[in-house]
Amino acid sequence: MASRLLKKILPKRPPRKPARTTGENKAKTDENTGTIIQKDLETTDLSPNLAANLDFLKKILGKNNDVVFRQFRLSTTDNTEAAIIFVDGLADKNTINNNILKPLMLEYRMAGLNQNGGSLLDRVKNLGATVSEAKYVHAMDPLVAAILYGDVALIINGQDTALLFSAKGWMSRSISEPQSEVLVRGPREGFTEDIRTNTTLIRRRLRSPNLVFEDLNIGRVTSTGVLIAYIKGIADPQLVSEVRARLQKIDIDGVLESGYLEELIEDNPYSPFPHILHTERPDRVAANLLEGRVAVITDGTPFVLLAPAEFIVFMQSPEDYNERYIIGTAVRWLRYLAFAISLLLPSLYIAITTFHQEMIPTRLLISLAAAREGVPFPALVEALAMEFTFEALREAGIRLPRSVGQAVSIVGALVIGQAAVQAGVVSSLMVIVVALTGIASFVNPSFSIALTMRLLRFPIMLLAGTLGLFGVMVGVLAILIHLSGLRSFGVPYLASLAPLHISDLKDVAIRAPWWAMINRPVETGKRNPRRQSPANKPSPPEPGQDKGGEQG
Amino acid sequence: MMLKRLLLYLLILGIAVTQPACWDQKEVERLGIVLATGVEQAPGGKVRLIVQNISPSAVGKGSQGGGGGPTATSKSYRNRAAEGETLFEANRKLSLETPRQLFFAHNQVIIISEELARSRGILEVMDFFERNPQIRRTTWVVIGEGDIAALLDEPGRLETTPAQRIFGIINERDLSSQYGVRMLGNFLEMLEGDGVQPFTALLKITDNQAQPEKHGDRTAEGHIIEPNDKFLINGTAVFRRDKMVGRLNPKESRGLLWVRGEVKGGVLEVHVPGEEDKTVTLEILRSKTKLKPSISDEQIFITVEINEESNLVETTAILDLTKPETINKLEKLQAEAIRKEVEMALDQAQQEYGVDVFGFGEELHRQYPQQWKEMKNNWADIFPTVQVEVQVEAKIRRTGLITKPVEPKQQ
Question: Which of B33, B61, B136 is facing A365, going by the closest CB pair?
Fold first, then answer.
């Protein structure tokens, strides 16, 4: 209901400036339908007559039962009529009661401010209401927009300007541990759906005046708040303006999740590979901003976009940088291996067992042949069926209510594991292969690239089943060719590897200790390459110079 | 238009992927895995091909059921034989009785009967094995004495098939170094090279001494009556070109391996002077050999330099091993023992068979390419006249956990 109405009243603003009228004489139009034409909203200003203004606003907002029109009298000597308008639930009732209504209705008189000079509105703003943010609005259009964003509008009879008090105070989820990126060691805070909370979380980590949040509104109907965040002096200004330009080009009715924006601003819309990183973790955003990347924060979702994102970024987990670097390096290689397994293992199994049996060690071949004895399907069909079952189970497990999800996984484990093997429908080795592939795909820290692997596995399996290892190679090469052509905001997707930046391998081939990561990544940190002083490597104090520092 | 083109591409891709492909696709369970191949002579100038065809389910079920090992009821392999003018013909004849196409890529061992190797020669056999893309060049080639079918049905219990047993035995060859054995690839190289003659191990079946003589009928107690056979690798067969001309006994075989630098282990026994009935046993650790040919006045000299190290592992002689002199003495004796083995092998090869299994010709070719060109064609005549000098440098590294032999205290 509400959205249909909003669609009518809030389309894209035309650039021209039509002649403006006041609510008094325009409120009568289209009385038979009871709606106000959009044009009127854009061209109408407030009138000095409170009744006319309320009339106009009620025409626009009146049908919504969550919009509250509270009329009252100011405690001036002549008891001027006034009204506040706000959306129930968006604006904070406490603030309204204690900081707007109470001072204006009771204490205004006690303060003895009636006789002071200046306009009534100024006095209300400066001496009456005790709200931190207040501003004047003259036109109906921004007034309505502000009310719908949780502000409280105060209209006083005889004034053709309204006061907007910021009293945003809606219910929102509290900060909790991010669900999709769980760390053992690292901050436990995750973004929430509220954009203000999210900017707070980032700002708290980057206490620098150079951290910039640029404001944008995207969505003709939703008018979603979108922020571009970057660090001045580190992020490449060209990159920032490119992100800004791409976002500004968007003309869409609504943006409900950052995924919408991701698809609208990415470089290659046909690629199965994600080339914008999304994260729920403020520490990850902060770290990436420090590397010269740009974040796009969308209101209403805990997922923040980070661009540019190269392939290797998806292989990195924030935990790598919190744990000791030796372990970080090992885990990173484990991840690369798991990545290869999750993409290729079923294909290699199919290719080798159906085309290249000479490559299997003799004993393995014998037990393989024994396991497959009596299996009615060729390896390809067997693998496809098992992979399908596994993917279906996984999907069912995610979507179902948590309690039912567990039942599904138990049934699944029994069905695709034990029972299928005992019934002789699939071979036990295939179950191992599928299980290993599944586990490997969970190892990936980035869910979006794990999804890509899940998808690409199937065409490669088909190639393996028809062309053998040659087919697998064809598939892998096709993927590599595609990857090397991809770009993310102008940065080659395979950057650090192709084009090769040897100094960047410190964060690709290994996770170098912090004292050795002297420079920022080449591609994103061009602007300000030096990250730290090169003398950060800790070492024991030199003998004979004990406590020299303390004395000095 | 766009859609049409996309469909066309998909169709082309689909055809390209599915139509030419799959020609060599074969599911694992459709393979008749061959683990050993035997070749022997058949009547009428034919050859007989015997293959050891494994039955995977018999192997797999054994391990799956937890019983472990093949039982008497289900043998894990089946030997099949067919005769033909050529091996390939025999191979295809096997398809008349084999439900699955034979798959040779995992063939572990090729056994050629001694009879065939001596009289008919192995050229045609080698042609088949060299031409067939499935056969690996790392397959072991051995010469089988007597009945090949019996060899391929040896009843040992470790490993599931006789083929794997032979393979296992050959893999442990460095524990004895008493026979020379070649892989198919090396064998072919030696066969085709002109400064060396091929050799490989001799395999036969003998009685198993570990079986009690009074075996009796103990089937009631759950014992299974099994043939009283076991493998024995009985020295080395030497070839002149494609025909086997003779054999080297285990000692002579090691002499051959010393010269070729292939001794990586094994046992040496030396007798201490004065205590001739007592034996000191040394285990060879490693050895290195250098061949140094020289030519003067039309006479070819070859110096064989052997560097060897060993551990003392057993002694019945009472020796004071803490004294360096004792060790030095033993080292000298050891060098002498090695020299003897080499000379025995040289004697056999040069005087008895006249075949250069040592590869002296190859070494000459390397050092004296000009002269070799002239000698090459009558190398068989020159080889017996080559003067060989053997120099051995032997070391003893360790003497075990005790320095003095076990000896009862004198009361």
Answer: B33
